[in-house]
Amino acid sequence: MKKTALLLMVMVLTVVLAACGQNNNNSGGASSPAPESSAPASTTPASESPAAELSGSLLATGSSALLPLVEQASKKFMDGNKGVSIQVQAGGSGTGLTQVSEGQSDIGNSDVFAEEKLDADKAAELVDHQVAVVGMAAVVHPEVGVDNLTKQQLVDIFTGKVTNWKDLGGSDQKIQIINRPSSSGTRATFEKYALGQKSEDLQGSIQEDSSGTVRKLVGETPGAIGYLALSYLDESIKVLKYEGVEATVDNVANGTYPVWAYEHMYTKGEPSELAKAFLDFMLSDEIQNADVVELGYIPASQMQVKRDVNGTITK
Amino acid sequence: MSAKTANKIATGVIVSVAGLIVLVLAGLLGFILVRGLGHISFDFLTSAPETIRRGGGIGPQLFNSVFLLVLTMIITIPLGLGAGIYMSEYAPANKVTNSIRLVVEVLSSVPSIIVGLFGLLVLVNLFGFGFSLFAGALALTVFNLPLMVRITEQGLRGVPREQKEASLALGLSKWKTITSVMLPIAMPVILTGTILAAGRVFGEAAALLFTAGMSSPRLDFTDWNPFSPFSPLNPFRPAETLAVHIWKINSEGLAPDAKEIAAGASAVLVIAVLLFNFGARWLGRYLHRKFTAIK
Amino acid sequence: MAQPLEKQQAKPHLAEEWVGRIYTLLCIAFLILTIVSIVYFVASKGLSTFFVNHVNVIDLLTGLKWAPDGEPAVFGALPFIFGSFSTSLLAAAIAAPLGFCASVFMVEIAPGFGRKYLQPVIELLAGIPSVVYGFVGLSVVVPFFRDVFPGQGVGIAAGAVVLSIMILPTITTIATDALAALPKGLKEGSFALGATRWQTIYRIVLPTTLPALMTGIVLGIARAFGEALAVQMVIGNAPHIPRSLFESASTLTSAITLSMGNTAMGSVANNALWSLALILMMMTFVFVFIVRWLERRSKL
């Protein structure tokens, strides 16, 4: 019994010592106070030459909508740079912004502009990298019987004025709203650009944060309506047109379909060498023309219109 | 209604309720296993998850679950034993002890999500451990400790007083009595309880969502250096466990076979819990036989 | 010669003893430190909503509207408190009779068979992880309710059903212990007087073990109150007090799980969620105190 206790204590001590060594060695970017040191000084000369060996680790956290893209890109990046470890976490846009602002992660993924979630002074410290554009569409249960909704109709639905699909020319089914929590970046985008106003949490509406659950519920609940990023669309649900415009990549790019948002990857101040290399990689053709499209996003370069934090559109 | 009829009816109701409970469990297990077993293969158990393509597996997550369990147990067992020994042997019967008991009871009732939030606030942010196995293990320790204390106390209480008194009478110090005489006798109970507790820890998700994280870095299983970020042994890397993975797939599954993966992972988790349960029972019976067998 | 020898032999014993005492004391100290820090941190975050963001406590506790992103931001947590209580109490109402029947079966009616088969079943139910329960709830219970009862399928009923199965083991285990601890003489006396088994259970066993049963029920309620993941998947999450059992509702835990990741730490919305966590924690204390009070009463 004594020996076992001794053995256990030795093991605990070892783990603790490893912990201390770890905090100095800095393999997880989150454990070091300064985000710059996430790429150890011992590496890379000028990052112009792709042949230079990059090493170190990065932590990117935040939006779950952006997660698939960053995860896939990070895998490719790690394949090309064996000494690099990139971890991508979900946690929500709010968490992502907080963590990059506090220095616990190197990159914060967000569906919304930083100014919309953080205080102005904190947001001012962050540098925005817009890596893709995500389009969003209203989706309904396949038996609803409606193909297209105007802005006013959507507003009526989400404010509770209209409660049955037959009032909109569809089947006789009660409208079941599948909304997002009020803090969701996806909802903020939908409200801003599809509804033009904030919607209240109505009595009897269902709220789910994750797109997978929303899709499942919309597909299974008669009369359901929700909204999803284009990358989540599949045959189990019906996609609606907005003001007669179909939700396609081209329509978003040329600006006729207005329900879209930038996907931001924020860094605190200018990015470190490793982070910059990764962000450049994200914006490179290799990712933009392949993974971005494959996963259902739209390359930022393909956009023919631009939009700033206040919503003003410039061509 | 005569008393006899009432008796018969009541007995019937009670028996059928008991039967209903067994049916519910059978249905539950059947549902999960039927949906998931078909998807389990060696490939599934060892390959990494895919974000949007078919054929993802749960290899790293399974490893993380096991590794996290081991880490947690390494921390919890000595602490739990020590605290339990204190509570049952050394604590004087006064108000302070009563309040400590209260503390243990409260700790055991704290919802796991609060433990997770606490872990996020203190372990991940304040101490700067980041999303890591270490933060997750500490969070699970908080969760598991009251259980261990209760198990230890229960085990020690089961030791016959005569054994303890005889040992003390022979001149052994109290500590030596506890470690050399009482603990071995209490070992079957403590061991059984620990394995059952381990089963609970294995399936825990809420406390880990915010501490061990929801992703796992690319693991190189040939790299056994605990300091390398690719090594599976590095306790400072984010480590999505099986339970958290099921939660994530159910919520955000983008892969076309997300449903099957979730079902398969659930089946694996349930099978693991079954193994823990049966293992604990079997071990308890075996040790009991060994210790009390007519030797 | 005896004196120095005794002293020699006493020293290692004393050292051992001190090692033991200090070690166990440290372990307990760690335990206490943990709970104190949990309370401190959750409280400090939760209270900051009131002190830093100047939200009114009464408004939070009794307000019916929860709109942290509205203009103006309103923080009324009553729907969540209502949701938590209704699901937990309903779950206990379902699980208590079931658990009681199960324990009566195991102790009175078929002890051998019961211990061998029903006991492992109960322990297995306790071991199934909550994510699995949530998953099964969403795949089986919600569609069933949606087809059979008027409503959305999600809501308090679905949450209560899932929770009742989760707390069944808790209630059953405690009830079984209580029933088994009953002195045999009590039951034998009743039988000797000619009572049937059911009469004995109903008139003697139940009233005597009632305090212990209540303890089990309260612990079950506490467990249901604190359950997060399974509930969040089946409850619908509308921040309103539902008008029926089958309408989307919210609990304290589901609200926290849903929105914690979307809010930035330090913002009002985030602090408000921590206040919900604080309420949750306070309720845990209340439950523990109720259990203690019940135990003290049963000792009388």
From TrEMBL, chain B:
This is Phosphate transport system permease protein PstA. The chain crosses the membrane at residues 12-34, 66-87, 99-120, 126-147, 181-202, 261-280. GO terms for biological process: phosphate ion transmembrane transport. Signal peptide: none annotated. It comes from Cohnella phaseoli. One of its GO terms (cellular component) is plasma membrane. Gene3D superfamilies: MetI-like. SUPFAM superfamilies: MetI-like (SSF161098). Keywords: Cell membrane, Membrane, Transmembrane, Transmembrane helix, Transport. GO terms for molecular function: phosphate transmembrane transporter activity. Belongs to the binding-protein-dependent transport system permease family. CysTW subfamily. CDD domains: TM_PBP2 (cd06261). Residues 62-280 form the ABC transmembrane type-1 domain. It is a multi-pass membrane protein. PROSITE patterns: ABC_TM1. InterPro entries: MetI-like, MetI-like_sf, Phosphate_PstA.
UniProtKB/TrEMBL annotation, chain C:
Part of the binding-protein-dependent transport system for phosphate; probably responsible for the translocation of the substrate across the membrane. This is Phosphate transport system permease protein. It is a multi-pass membrane protein. Residues 81-291 form the ABC transmembrane type-1 domain. InterPro entries: MetI-like, MetI-like_sf, Phosphate_PstC, Phosphate_Transport_Permease. One of its GO terms (biological process) is phosphate ion transport. The keyword Iron does not apply. PANTHER family: ABC TRANSPORTER PERMEASE PROTEIN YQGH-RELATED, PHOSPHATE TRANSPORT SYSTEM PERMEASE PROTEIN PST. Belongs to the binding-protein-dependent transport system permease family. CysTW subfamily. Keywords: Cell membrane, Membrane, Phosphate transport, Transmembrane, Transmembrane helix, Transport. The lineage of its organism: Bacteria, Bacillati, Bacillota, Bacilli, Bacillales. Signal peptide: none annotated. Pfam families: BPD_transp_1. The chain crosses the membrane at residues 21-43, 89-109, 121-144, 156-180, 201-225, 272-294. One of its GO terms (molecular function) is phosphate transmembrane transporter activity. GO terms for cellular component: plasma membrane. It is found in: Cell membrane. It comes from Cohnella phaseoli.
